[in-house]
Amino acid sequence: MLLLILILNIYFLVTDGRVGLTSALIGSKLYIMGGADDKYVYASLLYYDFTVLFDNIGHHATPIPVYSIWGTASIGGPNRTKIFLIGGKMEDKSSDSLSNTLVYSFDTINDNWTAPEISGNQPLRRREASSTFNPDNGWIYIFGGATVKSTNFNSTKFFNDFIILDSIGLSWINFNSSIDAPSRRASHTATLISNGIIVFIGGYELVDDKTIQDVDINQILMYDTKLGKWDYQFAVGDNVDPRNGHTSVLAPDGNIITYGGCRIDDLRSKPDLVVLKVTTIPFQWFAPSIPTENAPPPLTCHVAAIIENCMVISYGNITSDFSEPIGGNSEIYLFDTNSYKWIKEYMPHSGLFFF
Ligand SMILES: *[C@@H]1O[C@H](CO)[C@@H](O)[C@H](O)[C@H]1NC(C)=O
Ligand SMILES: *[C@@H]1O[C@H](CO)[C@@H](O)[C@H](O)[C@H]1NC(C)=O
Ligand SMILES: *[C@@H]1O[C@H](CO)[C@@H](O)[C@H](O)[C@H]1NC(C)=O
Ligand SMILES: *[C@@H]1O[C@H](CO)[C@@H](O)[C@H](O)[C@H]1NC(C)=O
Ligand SMILES: *[C@@H]1O[C@H](CO)[C@@H](O)[C@H](O)[C@H]1NC(C)=O
């Protein structure tokens, strides 16, 4: 039996600051794709393998067939070895025009991309939607988002429909989701918790068909994947700023850790790191006091993943208390969900990451 020791290290370097990228964790590998810096939209697919000691350089896998930003990505497929990159702005590499393909799928075993043929009614393209994989049925639940083409924010259309992609049968599941549907929103997070409920946090919403505003951070939207029903919870507890561009991960203790984001006025949302306790009713916001040692700058439009007790944060744009975000982040940061401290290295339990 191979004794596996792995150390996630703060000296991981990413190549440059980027926003609007998307990520998926498969086994021990964190895949990060697309996004843009101040100049370019990228087609790159990088991965970090956390079973390799001091593997601190992102490995380049086969690039996405299109330049991609503001999409959403989920694991999927019969063996959960595929990544589905859904929607967002996808530009043809040769023509710079918007791609006609809505979904690309990356096979992590064979290192190749396909545009899978998906039966059923193809939904409209959207950016900043959320996607959540349900391991019970292989379905990817896609919610919300905004139109891609518009350059004028005022004429952006927001979605509140709920789309399900069966990642095994490769079909769009016709689902009449406008019944009891919540407000139209984008740039929220969606996290599947242990009882089969998807918890949606934050984002911005369109109300009265004309006003774009922060979603009330205490109004927690939920979708029960077992009953197929929407519901709400009103969170109590510590004061938390509304936010979009944030990330949420499910910690091993069953609670949700939300990091970063900014408000609709583009200012930093505070506190940077907050915990939504969802294991008891009512849900409760908790703002732990966290030592600043090893902490990242405040970020928005970054990516996050959780590996055992370690939340990994990278990329994104650094937010400010006084202005719009001030510039890209190019480092990886680690947070210990047991000690609530930012750490420099993490040693996971041996062998856990074998497929
Ligand atoms: C899933 O994994 C099994 C066992 O490794 C393999 O036989 C099968 O071909 C895989 N299926 C797909 C669709 O990759
Ligand atoms: C991906 O690679 C596998 C194994 O080499 C091959 O069978 C399959 O046809 C490839 N798919 C595409 C779209 O290139
Ligand atoms: C968008 O709407 C706001 C508020 O109504 C207005 O101040 C602003 O000028 C509009 N922007 C554009 C580009 O139309
Ligand atoms: C969804 O709505 C369509 C049109 O109203 C209807 O034909 C279909 O049966 C509905 N599907 C479900 C699952 O309720
Ligand atoms: C960060 O945000 C600012 C303000 O919106 C923007 O000008 C800049 O391009 C962003 N940085 C990156 C890396 O996207």
UniProtKB/TrEMBL annotation:
This is Galactose oxidase. Keywords: Kelch repeat, Repeat, Signal. The keyword Signal applies. The keyword Isomerase does not apply. It comes from Gigaspora margarita. Residues 1-17 form the signal peptide. Residues 17-262 form the Attractin/MKLN-like beta-propeller domain. InterPro entries: Beta-prop_ATRN-MKLN-like (IPR056737), Kelch-typ_b-propeller (IPR015915). It comes from the Eukaryota.
